[in-house]
Structure prediction request, 590 residues.
Amino acid sequence: MAATAPKVLARRALIALTVLTVTLGGLLTGSIVWSDGQAAPKLGLDLEGGTQIILEPKSNSGQSVSAEQLNQARDIIVQRVDSNGVSGAEVTTQGDRNIVVSIPEIPTQQVRDAISKSSQMQFRPVLAVADGVPQPEPSPSPSEEPSAGPSPSASAESSASPAPSPTSTSNSAVNEVLTAESPSPSPSATASPPPSATGGDGATPTDATDLAWITPEIEQRFTELDCSDPTALENLQDDPEAPLVTCDDTGTAKFILGPVVVSGDKIDDATAGYQANQQGAVTGTVEIALSFNGEGSRQYADISRKMVPLPSPQNQLAATLDSRVIVAPQFNEAIPNGQASITGSFTLESARALADQLKFGALPLSFEEQSSVDISPTLGSEQLRYGVIAGLFGMLLVVVYSLLQYRALGFVTIASILVAGLLTYLTITVLGWAQNYRLDMAGVTGLIVAIGFTADSFIVYFERVRDELREGRSLESAVQTGWARAKRTVLIADAVNFLAAIVLYVLASSSVRGFAFTLGLTTIIDVLIVFWFTHPMLTLLARRKFFREGHPWSGLDPRRLGSTTTRYLGRGRFETTPPSSVREPEGSRA
Prediction:
């Protein structure tokens, strides 16, 4: 039973490799048939070209744009582009004025919005809310006679009428709940309408939640605002220290907001997922988990304590992006630790999109799209062809060396490299469909270099087996003993390569990341091939007569390897003499 154990393990390893290959092939086939996948890997900006978008910053205060602000905006736009699944994009500054975004594809509207609508994120308390679309006026009854002139009393009443009752609307933007990461959302209590939202007494506001911010001028702007008009907010002045009359991002609700209480750059992280209850079990409630930095936590704790006891909608805190409300959840409790949970009528997809807006919304500037043009590949198909030729030439050299050095055993090396190439191709192509990964010229270079790394692993293993044969072991014993010693060396070498790939990917520029990624990917595949293909194949071949008897063309001929205890008798026959029974030379005895 023990003698068959290596054979059984070898077959299991080959089955596992087959299952992995078939799974990747099935995913690729399915993506092509039922989705938008393609049979070839997606190519990067330098090999395929794409779209170049030039963004011009605009400052509401009229101040000049500093280089520090521009660099900070560039870094955040990079995060936004990456969060939308765009791989291989380049974001650079143009002089000290513009930001240039180059994308290796035709960008979707979602990606364009994430890039061009890059503005400050702000948190403001809600003072009043109403329907964003004006309600139709009731038609006069047939019995009424038309008036010859406007009624003075009616006109006076109209000008002095208060803002629409600031109660919650049915809009989803105002139905979310803010809790201090409670395990389950508490239903919001229905509050009676607050006092008149008119600060006509001229009182000075005491804080951001004070209704005294609603002056007659603010009230008139609120009444006249029509959120269904796309140009309604074009000339809006967004002063952080003043109230804001604005709409939500869907145009179905309008708000009066107090001054900014927490700026978006205080957000440390924002994630979306399913909420867990007190027992740790995942529920079906979708939540957005917010965390703030030290100063943001303090500011958020202060405003939450003030807003919890207020009636609706004054207990709602609106997050604005591009001066529009993207979410306005209400507080159910004070949040002292800067860890908030927003729940409501979210889908997982909409929650993730909102979390990205919250997380990457703290830009120091607003931008408008200046131009968008198609760009040609910086390298093109000719360089890709040269890269492929270089890879094939390198593989040919490895094949020639393997056959000269290892003879028939060299075919195991060739087969291993071909299987590794197939796995790499399938993985990169599937990643192109699933994660929009794009192969650039640096990545192609990483694949070419990986051929040498893969060959190194085989050489280490084969030379260990040969060393065991030189010591007089049988081939089956040499394969197992040599593997026990060689696999440690292979794992250490691949660990060093993988560590180098991680360091390059994290610290290097985007132009080098393609090389680092393919280097790390091929290192992992190299380990799989050595453990699941090369060693199992050699284990099975060691039981074949051609290799077991050490044919001169097998590459495992003990005599050719210089074994001092084995004598070749011809026709696949050997005579092995134990080292202890070797006769001593004449005259060696005392």
